[in-house]
């Protein structure tokens, strides 16, 4: 009727033309186009082959919600219940080609199906999905303004690599096709997000304790899990996850914690001795000798096979800098010896 491509994208990607050709409200077609654009960013995380629905939503209005198509959407954030994708009467999945949205192909009314209550972690993710990352429904950790591609990747890393002893998880396992499969895949979120941030801190501490005792850097210690986590949490609202990792590593790991990452998340309370020496205006070796003599606070981190890296608290560097500035100031009156030298030269 509209004279455009019969594909879903071809139809919804032209909201103004669609409104004009079919005499529809332009604001409504524009909202359809925006939801379709969001759905296209899901890439491989579409739920294919059958529908998933919230019975209580269908009771209010018989139409499919686009967020139900995401394979990580297992709950309705409005009603706090899990979605259903299998008919309790016949056991079949809900076919895309059934005659009526609210009825299974066997005729069972889906609006009266009783579903389990959703967990807080499921509602956290459902809120982010339904609002395109705008907010997490007030559930901790409180996330606002996140990119859904980053949220999806974060969930994938946390769930797929939850068990550090299982190497090389299967790629396709991160895109479950059914509600039951998705609930099982997302179960680690319940453990990681409950009692935030303490449960996640415990998980990070356990990974650090299980890491190789020969590791000298956080990358080597935590491996692929940490490296992939950094790609989506170094900046933006999801940074709260990386901040917990850095905090626990600074406490429990006696190796090199990436200072650039620590600075990005606002936890750079220590400086490498070379940077501290630069700020103080002295040589690195002189400062190291000063530290070895116990004249300033510092800590050591393992570096390389046998070496040590010296680090100083920022507050300590500031204290020493203030002390040095009191020795002589360009703005102050020149000391007596300098005045004498200048007078002799004159």
Question: What does this entry show, briefly?
Answer:
This protein is mainly α and 346 residues long.
Describe the structure.
The mean pLDDT is 85. The protein has helices at 8-12, 15-22, 26-40, 55-60, 120-130, 148-160, 179-185, 187-193, 198-210, 218-233, 239-252, 259-264, 273-280, 284-292, 314-327, 336-345; strands at residues 75-76, 81-82, 270-272, 299-303, 307-313. The chain has 16 helices and five strands. Helix 2 (15-22) crosses helix 3 and helix 13 crosses helix 14. By secondary structure, it is mainly α. The longest helix has 16 residues, at 218-233. Helices cover 47% and strands 5% of the residues. It starts with 7 loop residues before the first helix and ends with a helix. The protein folds into four domains: 8-40, no CATH class; 55-193, no CATH class; 198-264, no CATH class; 270-327, Multidrug-efflux Transporter Regulator, Chain: A, Domain 2. The protein is elongated. It has a three-stranded antiparallel sheet. A two-stranded antiparallel sheet has the order 1-2.
